[in-house]
Design goal:
The complex is a heterodimer of chains A (462) and B (195). With 462 residues, chain A is an all-alpha fold. Chain A has one domain. Chain A has 17 helices and no strands. In chain A, helix 4 crosses helix 15 and helix 10 runs antiparallel to helix 15. The longest helix of chain A is centred in the middle third of the chain and has 34 residues. Chain A is globular, with a radius of gyration of 23 Å. Chain B has 195 residues and is an alpha+beta fold. Chain B has 2 domains: 98 residues, no CATH class; 66 residues, no CATH class. Helix content of chain B is 39%, strand content 12%. Chain B contains 5 helices and 4 strands, in the order βαβαααβαβ. The longest helix of chain B is centred in the middle third of the chain and has 27 residues. The radius of gyration of chain B is 26 Å and the shape is elongated. The two termini of chain B are 14 Å apart. Classes of the chains: A mainly alpha (462), B alpha+beta (195). At the A-B interface, helix 2, helix 7, helix 9 and helix 17 of A face strand 2, helix 2, helix 3 and helix 4 of B.
Chain lengths: 462, 195
Amino acid sequence: MADLAIDPRIELNPTLVQGGMTYADVSEKISAITENKPPKQWYYLITISSLMTVMLFGCLGYLVVTGIGVWGNNNPVGWGWDITNFVWWIGIGHAGTLISAVLFLFRQKWRTSINRAAEAMTLFAVACAAIYPLFHTGRPWRAIYWLFPAPNEYLHLWQNFRSPLEWDVFAVSTYGTVSLLFWFTGLIPDLATLRDRATNRVRKVVFGILSLGWRGSASQWRHYELAYLILAGISTPLVLSVHSIVSFDFATSVIPGWHTTIFPPYFVAGAIFSGFAMVVTLMTVARWVYNLQNLITIKHLENMCKVMLATGMIVGFAYGTEFFIAWYSGNAYERFAFLNRAFGPYWWAYWTMLTCNVVSPQLFWFKKFRTTPALMFIIAIFINIGMWFERFVIIATSLHRDFLPASWGYFKPTWVDIGTFAGTIGMFLTLFLLFLRFLPAIAMSEVKGVLHQQIEEGKGNH
Amino acid sequence: MATSFLDNLPIPEFLKPREEAPHYGVVGDFDTPEELLRAIRTLRVAGFTKMEAYSPFPIHGIDEALGEPRSPLGRIVITAAVVGLAGAVALQWWTGAVDYKLNVAGKPLFALEPSVPIMFELTVLLAAFAAVLGMFYLNRMPTYYHAFFNFSRAGGASNDRFLLAVEAADPKFRGEELKTLLDSLGSRHSELVEA
């Protein structure tokens, strides 16, 4: 094993598990995070993030008792920060599924040490996203009758299944459910590891129950591997469908700036772009706090930077296409919508978006930026901001000035808008920190599988 | 098995507690997947049929070595996917075109095109549930007691050890004697495990 560290090939093709780790080291390193007291930074962060979560509940409670007029939404801007945040959060989730499902099908072994955390991020992002449409209904406890075809005596009617908003309900709820199933299935062998390592009664019972009696027998692995492959296979078209359907919410309307056929691929690329930015944001920090440099290597981070560079350019290309088509259509309203976007009252939002999403990822052409965690963290933050502005630009600039100048308006967020948005960031971070603290953040069984292949390949070379 | 009061009661045979074999089998503990595979192949040639391997990650080629058939999970998932697809068509057609006819901009009450997204989503949803619940069913999960856990080093299978059990149900099972055989195949520690 130790000879891996001095293997001359490392310079050319860095190994995915470094530092000459053994199988037992992998279990030890990853399980120890959940078994020992977390570092000081963890306590600081969770204090801040749980206070923000409390603020979220406060804002939502205030909204419920007062009405959705506490948000800045108005006529004509009926969708404001709520739908902006909804689309932003859903998009962030997409990287998790892309890493866990699509890269699995493409046999990209580098996914193994980041997939668990990225999948957890997906779940928490979907949970944050769901808050917005749910509370936009004003009466979330009745939303089950409005959103889902639950037979009821109360309304005596069914949903309009020809509406993209209804498709969205099914897409997002299916996505959340399938992501949860996928994530839990992946966790089972690792929960069994935690069960077998447990030294106190509470951990023994909790992980004993959660691991469902997993033994790691060949007959269990046989069904397990097929189940995992099938989940990856169906999650791949699912993740593409979710943001396509989210984009239908806009694309099937008649509003200039929304009524665009390029929306589905443009939204999917944007989702992957923002999702990878969030993965890099979280992983560079987690890697540093928990000393995981041997497992989440520079190679992992560099690959993610390359994905951001590629998807960032797809997004940039889509911005250009939109403008070209607006001009080429010859439609006065289309042309106005786009000129207004770049030079109207929301020009600052548009240029923020363009700078963050198109200009900043270009730095990833330089190896220095792709291999320095601090630099990529900064760029990833810029991309997170840029992608939030993209959704805001699409929603607010298209709505605030449509066909009739007499009905033009302007959207300004209220303190409740800001508090709710900051609150969901707090909730997301709280859930992620709890995940890091209590569950194995890296898929131990998968890393061991990769390590085994690495050992085999190493033997072949000697 | 000792006689109990159950024997005198008119209880159907299948409800009575099953007579258990006194042993689960002999379990050996190997360092690497390769040694484990070699041991399985040797024992198969020697005529052993009831064996089970335990490992911290799936080992390529172990099913062939153990003579395990392909998992039937695919068929379960396909069935669920078809039910999901048909259910989505039925749901959208019956609610929209039969039970609650709502005219929206003169569009047809039911058409295939706008039904596609929900058809797709429900297909995926049911397939995913079938994949996970089907896997649980085939693996008998959750099962919180298994005789394998009586092996003193059972925890190694979720860490860095590769275990091989020759089960007592094997016609060639010979109890304690097998320990020497497993040791000679490279096992670091072999043990006769209680049921």
